[in-house]
Amino acid sequence: MGLSHSDVSYNDEVTNASPSKVTKNSSSSPSIEDLIAEATANGEEENESLDQKAQRALECPCVADLRKGPCGSQFSEAFVCFIKSTADEKGSDCVNPFVALQNCIRAHPDAFSKDVLEEEEFYD
């Protein structure tokens, strides 16, 4: 939730993450932060509006599993809010969508990798 621009700019690490690693049973799944950074980088076009950037980021294959899962609508809402955020601390104006996503993850723990569930506990 409190990712800053610097958190999203480590594309060298993230670009090499394979979308196929985002499976439920994978032992080396990328972190949520890695996926957000990769998808955000996917939405980086100089002259695009925030709406266009958010849509392009949502189309990234790296977040396809999250969009299509049981918490897809909550993920999409929180993610789009984060992309469009203009708050000084990027995403700090997206508390409600992220709380809804967190609640959904708790309600559907079997749909998420152990890594995602451990990260979710970290944010409590």
UniProtKB/TrEMBL annotation:
Entry-linked Pfam families: CHCH (PF06747)
Origin: domain of life: Eukaryota
Domain CHCH: 71-106
Chief location of this protein within or outside the cell: mitochondrion
GO molecular function, one term: protein-disulfide reductase activity
GO BP terms: protein import into mitochondrial intermembrane space
Annotated keywords: Disulfide bond, Mitochondrion, Oxidoreductase, Peroxisome, Protein transport, Redox-active center, Translocation, Transport
Compartment(s) of residence: Mitochondrion intermembrane space; Peroxisome matrix
Annotated segments matching region Disordered: 1-32
InterPro entries: CHCH (IPR010625), CHCHD4 (IPR039289)
Stretch forming the signal peptide: none
Bias (Polar residues): 1-17
Protein name per its UniProtKB record: Mitochondrial intermembrane space import and assembly protein 40 homolog
